[in-house]
Specification:
Blueprint: H1 2-6, H2 15-22, E1 40-48, E2 54-62, E3 68-76, H3 79-92, H4 97-101, H5 105-111, H6 126-140, H7 157-162, H8 174-194, E4 198-206, E5 210-217, H9 228-240, E6 246-249
Parallel strand pairs: 5-6
Antiparallel strand pairs: 1-2, 2-3, 4-5
Helix pairs in contact: 2-3, 3-6
Length: 257
């Protein structure tokens, strides 16, 4: 099985998966002493399959809010295992440990797709997806006892992933609405903007309907930030949050030096 994945399946890999295999950003290890004096909890999880493939994750989790501040992986096995572990690290950053526990294989596949409607991972790689998920799950078990922010609500991850409108949107407090929007930005919007060295942040939300955003990095000077990119953000939020939500860019950021 592993020899097959190492060989002929390269031709079946998406460009996104191949890029993560060749140019990983999260490969490595976090040492326990890196948590000292930072109010961070060091956690780790490791799994091995019957054919000898091994993946290990080390994470720093903020003791204040349960947020995953940093994550690294070590993988020994076929290239696909490395690419899948890298993709999951990208997803984990900015999540808190409760959100991370509810992520599944579909999120990894989505992260690795070249086309939105075409699955990324061949059947032969599914064992590596499970290996990665199980290793992270082991690490997250060590996060029990860390308090989550008062405004945090247990966002139905699959509901946001599959589409809205978001249930009970108008009954949420403003801080809860912003928390939901932050999760959607992190899962559906930021990964693609960051590919071109851009960024997007929430400035304000008024009555659950008008969302003011600010662009960062390359997005500030990119014409699509008020064109196709803005339209894409608007479409995602109206489809998955509320049909009446309106996205407004903060133009003051476009004039900064």
């Amino acid at each position: 099985m592993h020899k097959q994945v190492m060989g002929c399946l390269w031709s079946q890999f998406t460009r996104a998966l191949a890029e993560k295999i060749v140019h990983p950003r999260f490969a490595g290890v976090i040492q326990p002493e890196e948590a000292l004096g930072k109010n961070m909890r060091f956690v780790t999880g490791e799994k091995k399959d019957s054919l000898g493939a091994i993946v290990r994750f080390t994470l720093l989790v903020d003791e204040w809010d349960g947020g995953i501040a940093d994550v690294r992986f070590q993988a020994f096995g076929p290239p696909a295992l490395n690419g899948i572990a890298e993709a999951f690290c990208e997803i984990l950053i900015r999540k808190n440990y409760d959100q991370a526990k509810r992520l599944d294989a579909e999120w990894i596949d989505k992260q690795l797709r070249d086309k939105k409607d075409k699955e990324a991972l061949p059947q032969e790689t599914h064992t590596f997806v499970n290996l990665v998920l199980d290793a992270v799950e082991d690490a997250l078990q060590e996060c029990e006892g860390i308090s989550l922010p008062e405004e945090y609500i247990v966002t139905p991850v699959q509901a946001v992933f599959e589409g809205g409108p978001y249930p009970g949107w108008d009954e949420l407090s403003q801080s809860q609405q912003i928390a939901v929007l932050e999760q959607l930005l992190s899962s559906d919007i930021r990964p693609y903007i960051e590919l071109d060295a851009g960024g997007i942040e929430i400035v304000s939300l008024t009555e659950g309907r008008e969302l003011v955003i600010a662009y960062r990095g390359a997005c500030i000077t990119c014409p699509s930030s008020v064109g196709s990119t803005l339209q894409a953000v608007q479409q995602i939020l109206t489809a998955k949050i509320h049909p009446e939500i309106r996205v407004v860019p903060d133009h003051s950021f476009f004039t900064r030096d």
